[in-house]
Design brief:
With 357 residues, the protein is α+β, with helices and mostly antiparallel strands. The protein has 2 domains: 214 residues, Hypothetical protein, domain 2 (Endonuclease III, domain 1, Orthogonal Bundle); 131 residues, Nucleoside Triphosphate Pyrophosphohydrolase, CATH 3.90.79.10. Strands 1, 2, 3, 4, 5, 6, 7 and 8 form an 8-stranded mixed beta sheet that branches. The termini are far apart. The structure holds iron/sulfur cluster (SF4). Iron/sulfur cluster binds next to helix 9 and helix 12.
Length: 357
Amino acid sequence: MDIFQNQLMDWYQQHDRPLPWKEEKDPYLIWLSEIILQQTRVAQGLPYFEKFKAHYPDVTSLANAAADEVMKLWEGLGYYSRARNMHATAKYISQDLGGHFPTTYKDILSLKGVGPYTAAAISSFAFGLPHAVVDGNVYRVLARYFGIDTPIDQTPGKKRFAELAQALLDTSQPGRYNQAIMDFGAVQCVPKSPKCTACPLQDCCQAFQEDQIERYPVKSKKLVKKDRFFHFLVFEHEDTTFIQRRESKDIWLHLYQFPLIESDQFIKTFSALQQQSDWPNWIPQPTVGEWSLSKPFKQELTHQRIHAFFFKISLKAAPKSIPTEIVTTERENLTKFAFPKIIDLYLKDNSLYLKLL
Ligand code: SF4
């Protein structure tokens, strides 16, 4: 145990990555960085952290922000429930806790959107509390170093790794130790092609010694992704177009989209699309003019694969009775709304954003 800890801390002494939230002691900013970095690479998360810190330097300013503004700032980062939970938690801290961030592991863990990993990170970084982080990096490093083949996606494996991680924690400097093991997993013991030949831990690393690096960490289930086909209807009349906020809890809650027809396969012809039962009834068929179809766009989510097709449809006349959930907007104002990444890609590709230049 001590050997691992010493080797790791020696490695960290030489490879400490300077990041803006390291050495930070303000639990609000640490929490912000941890929520942004969940399922996100550091390079991608960094500008978002700077942006949020500049807009909302403390928990009260984030709590008082408009939901649409928070979502717009978050746009492009994915996993949007993080932004919604973060906003709700900021309101809770601001209104119910008098703006004071909780100071114990248990109270931090009870915050919405905060799991054991994030609670351990915040409590060790901000308050020096002895709680070991366990994330994908930690599973990988420990599974390889100790040659553990218990599946990490089942309860016994999770328990075993959590106990081992806690036993390995350097309780005299828990924050620094947690940073070290996360950085080691992110920089040295990376998922594909780890830098074993230049690794100071290789003498004691079981996976390396047995030439079994690819084997670890072990997972029991193979993720099966569901394919979904989204047909977005980009109606245009003169300079205006029509969008709506997603209210279903499915994916992309509270982001904006064009009116959507979803099916379990690609609808190849425009006439077939017009015959779908969920064709918007506020667009009478006689008003439909010329149309064109975009190239396909694809976005991989954790459990699903989204295939998107955009039908740009000009209208001969403005729709007469538009439902309340539909937002009529000038095309050049689309940049003010937060869209899922796949729609952003379409808008950029379609040069609509360029009209602003
Ligand atoms: S030797 Fe390779 S697998 Fe083992 S800890 Fe180092 S980088 Fe990871």
